[in-house]
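Good morning N.,

You mentioned wanting to compare the apo and holo forms, so I went ahead and generated the holo version with iron/sulfur cluster. This is what I fed in:
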Amino acid sequence: MINIKIDGKTLKVKEGTTILNAALQAGIYIPNLCYDRRLKPFGACRLCIVEIAGQKKLLPSCSTPATEGMEIRTETPDVIKARTTVLELLLIHHPLDCPVCDKAGECTLQDLVFKYGASSNRFEAKRKSEPERLDAPIVEYNPNRCVLCGKCVRICLDHQGVGAISFIDKGIKTTISPAFHEPLDCEFCGQCIDICPVGALGSKHYRHSSRTWYMDEKMIICPFCGCGCSTNLSIREGKIIRARGIEGIGINKGDLCSRGRYGFDYIASENRLKNPLIRKDGELVPASWDEAIKTVAKRLQEIKDKYGAFSIGAIGSQRCTLEDNFMLQRFMREVIRSDNLDSASRFGYAKAQTAFEWAFGLESLPIKWNSPLEADYILVMESDITSTMPVWGLNFIMAKNNGATLIVADSRETKLARNSTNHLKIKPSTGLAFLGSLAYVIYEEGLY
Ligand code: SF4
Ligand code: SF4
Ligand code: SF4
Ligand code: FES
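and this is what came out, ligand included:
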């Protein structure tokens, strides 16, 4: 640990911590546009500059490691002057069209311009005036608002392991695009939209559907897979209009996959069953909840009277909450007085759980959310984790990017296989033989 001072506050931080990370850990905000906790420093925006005692130049805090005894000041007159100049330069091209921009109200550039008052400009140049790109199914891009911070490019390649977009062209023409200006064709996770600090990347579903300050925000747990990502829903007049991750919140700490981000439209779908239906004379007829509940209660009573309580059973669902399933078992045991209870999960993970208990004698999986971030070698056998648990799957890509060797033995070209150090393309269903051979070599060569 080393000792540093930021704005007069004494801090103890791990050696190698950047000044920006040290400040954020201590709750001190340093303006930034191209920094993100999940990405390596990029040094593109120069807004995070700070003054360091004994240094002639202002230095970018996102890429400067703190050293023992360092004294840092984040808001001196020189720092403010330099930041205001950077903002002026950005505003040569940025249109500040906040009245028609979906990002207004939660835009870092808007906040910084407001804070540093850089809306007038000493520089003159022909303003960028490129058409919006609306040719992709979900993601839209406004090149005029883009501040070229590169966060979208880096989250897509380094964190998502996709690499669908990059910087294209040069100078004033520089833009973000798939290769050869092709339409975007990717996994549409939407991570680039969330990470964009301005309104350059947006979601077509959400486009012009509400000003940010008119929406109610509600945090839920995404129901689509076992990751259990915290998802922030924005609701306008009772309708969900967007879902996003919030930096640092939940087990996912802000990451979301395409299912969690876009899989909510069925809730307001016209095709969704919204009323109970009761079969009358062979036809399903819409009914009120009151009528439906009375009908079910009457039929259950009739069956119980005629055949006994044990002729009635119930199957809970793994899609329901724990509380829902708990109420179902209480209803069955205390009202119906039957123990005939089962769960739909018996057909899925319960079998895997039993096999695991049988093989290793453990009742719960010893896998932690942070695995395998600290591992040096990772072997993935015939498993498409980035598809079954997309956000947890990102850990494998991060571990590989941090230097781990990732070996994927799979007959398929999975996303993890594409991001692996070695893809062992075994024949389908030969995983057991592969593991047996591996065990044989380990045993024969005394590698255990
Ligand atoms: S990106 Fe931000 S600053 Fe730019 S127009 Fe949109 S809200 Fe305004
Ligand atoms: S939506 Fe996801 S995969 Fe597509 S470009 Fe953005 S970050 Fe990359
Ligand atoms: S689109 Fe957004 S995230 Fe990507 S470079 Fe431009 S401003 Fe940065
Ligand atoms: S955040 Fe440091 S240069 Fe952009």
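The chain has a mean pLDDT of 93.

Happy to go through it together on a call whenever suits you.

Best,
F.
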